Amino acid sequence: MVSLVPSLTEAIAVGAPGLLVGVTDWCTRPAGLDAARIGGTKNPDVAAIAALRPDLVIANEEENRAPDLAALRAAGLDVLVTEVRTLPQAFTELERVLRACGLSRPGWLDDAEAAWSAVGPFGPDETRRAVVPIWRRPWMVLGSDTFAGDVLARLGVENVYATHPDRYPRIPLDELNAAGADLVVLPDEPYRFTADDGPEAFPGLPAALVDGRMLTWYGPSLAAAPAALRAALR
């Protein structure tokens, strides 16, 4: 197998690391994974992947580009493309991927579903409105129809730009500060926001620095994500 999705690399490799013969440069978990590196999620080396002769290439419609997936298919490879824009979709797609890999349902997936089923619901007086930057120079934020936005909503954090026509709109900083948010949520990926790089741009808002893996990855981290994100969002 070759995985082009860091989240799914971790989901497969924690139980069966030997299944993966190739992964992207961004596949950092589990640590020490012994697999060929075949480029990034947006620029995989199609020839290198084909040379590995995998039974299956695992991809995602957001993380990977359609032309690369078409090139892999043209090279004669089977490609499984996932779509994950909500938490329920994440659970469904994880089961599909693991099944395609010949793996039984892992305990961490049961733990993740149990952890999330215990969250909420939140009343209107418990919900906060947030802007959620994912990049600066230029400023980009979570918009509509995103996995991270769905995760936050389940934790009582409403994305101010959840109805924006774009999934990751570019919004000028002055507009972000005037958007009527109660909170700015700053993950450490894809842009690495830190206490010294991000909060100062939102002087009127409390800032929550969150682990990007807990917010955006769908895999074993889902079991710990509710508690970790709630602690960061306080």
What Rg, in angstroms, do the CA atoms define?
A: 18 Å
Question: Which term fits the overall shape?
Answer: globular
What's the order of the H and E elements?
A: EHEEHEHEHHEEEHEHEEHH
Counted beta strands: 11
Mean pLDDT: 96
The portion of residues assigned to helices is 25-40%
Pick out the low-confidence regions. Answer: none
Main sheet strand line-up: 3-2-1-4-5
- Label the structural class: alpha/beta
How much strand?
A: 5-15%
Question: What kind of sheet is the major sheet?
Answer: 5 strands, parallel
What is the CA-CA span between the terminal residues? 40 Å
What's the helix count?
9
Please provide a written account of the structure.
This protein is of the alpha/beta class and 234 residues long. 32% of the residues lie in helices and 15% in strands. The chain has a five-stranded parallel sheet with strand order 3-2-1-4-5. Strands 9-6-10-11 form a four-stranded parallel sheet. Helix 1 (6-13) links the parallel strand 1 (2-3) and strand 2 (22-23). The radius of gyration is 18 Å and the shape is globular. The protein starts with a strand and ends with a helix. The model has no long low-confidence stretch (mean pLDDT 96).
